[in-house]
Amino acid sequence: MKNNNTQPQSSFKKFCRKLSPKRKDSGGEIQQHNSNNGEDKNSDLEAVFDYMDANKDGRISAEELQKSFMTLGEQLSDEEAEAAVRLSDTDGDGMLDFEEFTQLIKADDEEEKKIELKEAFKLYISEGEECITPRSLKVMLKKLGESRTTDDCKVMISAFDLNADGVLSFDEFALMMR
Known about the structure:
By secondary structure, the protein is mainly alpha-helical. The protein has 8 helices and 2 strands; from the N terminus they run αββααααααα. It has a two-stranded antiparallel sheet. The protein is elongated and about 65 Å long. Keywords: Calcium, Metal-binding, Repeat. This is EF-hand domain. Potential calcium sensor that binds calcium in vitro.
């Protein structure tokens, strides 16, 4: 994904979170709804899509996207709105139908997960290194209150070391975390 498309996606995701339905908890407090249930998430996406589809034609234009952002006090330039639509417009009509809208949200979710994994990976590597070594794993585990020998760390790494080089690359780490 090109870097110039990540800004509209990030703003877009933040916007969608603002629109996500809020629920009251048992104490009557309003809580942001964070459901792991696929049906609820799809229902939430439908509600966001319906809100953004101002003319109710079943498609979101760049203009509707931009106006939706403004409604909630967010700014989205013409270029950003057009880039966000273009990013997921698979049928080439210049608008987002519900399926394309859903793909845009999913792409942003995947990008967020990758960023979080990269941040976690950085915690396990020593400065100047690009991989998790038995030594760097041992140091991190000690910081977490778990004392392990270097040999123990070698065994842990070997379980996910796909190329048998004795260290974990980011891709191997990501596989381990899934």
